[in-house]
TrEMBL record:
First-level EC class: oxidoreductase
PANTHER family, per database record: 3-KETO-STEROID REDUCTASE, 3-KETO-STEROID REDUCTASE_17-BETA-HYDROXYSTEROID DEHYDROGENASE 7
Protein name per the record: 3-keto-steroid reductase/17-beta-hydroxysteroid dehydrogenase 7
Recorded GO MF terms: 3-beta-hydroxysteroid 3-dehydrogenase (NADP+) activity; 5-alpha-androstane-3-beta,17-beta-diol dehydrogenase (NADP+) activity; estradiol 17-beta-dehydrogenase [NAD(P)+] activity
Family that this chain belongs to: Belongs to the short-chain dehydrogenases/reductases (SDR) family. ERG27 subfamily.
Pfam families, A to Z: adh_short
Keyword match NADP: yes
Quaternary assembly: Binds to the short form of prolactin receptor.
Entries under SUPFAM superfamilies matching the protein: NAD(P)-binding Rossmann-fold domains
Subcellular location: Endoplasmic reticulum membrane
Enzymatic reactions: 4alpha-methyl-5alpha-cholest-7-en-3beta-ol + NADP(+) = 4alpha-methyl-5alpha-cholest-7-en-3-one + NADPH + H(+); 4alpha-methyl-5alpha-cholest-8-en-3-one + NADPH + H(+) = 4alpha-methyl-5alpha-cholest-8-en-3beta-ol + NADP(+); a 3beta-hydroxysteroid + NADP(+) = a 3-oxosteroid + NADPH + H(+); 5alpha-androstane-3beta,17beta-diol + NADP(+) = 17beta-hydroxy-5alpha-androstan-3-one + NADPH + H(+)
Amino acid sequence: MQRAEAARTALHTSHPGADISLLKVDVGSLQSVLEASKEIKQRFKKVDYLYLNAGIMPNPQISLKAFVTGLFSRKVISMFATGEGLLTQQDRVTADGLQEVFVTNVFGHFIMIRELEPLLCQPGNTSQLIWTSSSNARSSAFRLDDYQHTQGVEPYSSSKYASDLLSVALNRHYNKQGLYSSVICPGLVMTNLTYGILPSFFWMLIMPVMWLIRIFTNTFTLTAYNGAEALFWLFNQKPESLDPRAKYHSYSSGLGNSYTKPQKRPNQNDVSVCAYAYARAVSIYSPGIVQKKHCGPYNTVIT
Ligand SMILES: NC(=O)C1=CN([C@@H]2O[C@H](COP(=O)(O)OP(=O)(O)OC[C@H]3O[C@@H](n4cnc5c(N)ncnc54)[C@H](OP(=O)(O)O)[C@@H]3O)[C@@H](O)[C@H]2O)C=CC1
Ligand SMILES: CC(C)CCC[C@@H](C)[C@H]1CC[C@H]2C3=C(CC[C@]12C)[C@@]1(C)CCC(=O)[C@@H](C)[C@@H]1CC3
């Protein structure tokens, strides 16, 4: 909350008239998501934009062997752009009995969308869901028969691919009610997430190398300001004009100027499968968990 208050103060300095309301939510805890959603419904009559940005990559490990092999392969540029095959993470099970990466990066957000449905689907109004996904999302890390990625070591890639699929499934389900979902990738940005991969002083030391790499890959946005480009770009678009299956990337030119461009779509079969998986996930988890946590009745009907 302290960080949120600091952000509010900074925003008030640059935008003195802004009405900024703070609310604490742990998207990794279903009870917290339900409570926060209830509070949002009390505070607001409608929600125009829901930015699903919170995400984690716990205990990341770099594979030095994969990095060195990648450096001398033809895939070197794509390795720097996506980090594919370079990172593994150690996941854990939350108090709700869910995989932490899956619940934080995907499922908590999904429950919030369902809970806020009346505010997001107002007649005569369009609303946008904007997910912060990643170019690290990888279909081969996602399996329907293990959609929480309990068996593998790449829960981050898996959860980001799940959010890409879920966004397409949400478009199919909600577009006719004026709700539109998009995913973005901010590129490689220096944040607490990347400081968990390598210490901040190390990133500082290799910054000249990073600027050099940026000449060859536009995905090294590096600053939060440039990384947020696609989030801001989407805010200004007519949601009906967006491609429901695209991923919108924040890019930076060699000189550090940012711009947004759409990129590839998830596989059609995967999308149908994902819609089914999430319908099943909600029906399995919601009633049991809510009863256990004494949050009152919570019925979800998925068609
Ligand atoms: N940095 C990068 O290079 C990239 C980042 N991304 C994605 O961008 C998003 C933002 O990450 P980034 O800013 O880089 O990393 P940070 O670790 O700096 O920020 C993560 C944010 O998520 C919030 N968060 C984490 N867990 C929870 C939780 N359980 N409940 C509520 N909020 C939570 C954090 O809140 P708090 O500060 O209160 O803990 C923080 O605001 C993530 O989804 C990440 O996957 C995607 C591609 C590249
Ligand atoms: C640049 C240096 C000389 C060496 C850095 C090597 C790696 C640690 C990085 C190379 C590509 C990076 C990358 C990510 C993390 C750090 C690297 C693997 C991400 C996976 C971070 C989270 C994301 O969501 C992706 C978009 C990033 C892709 C690139």
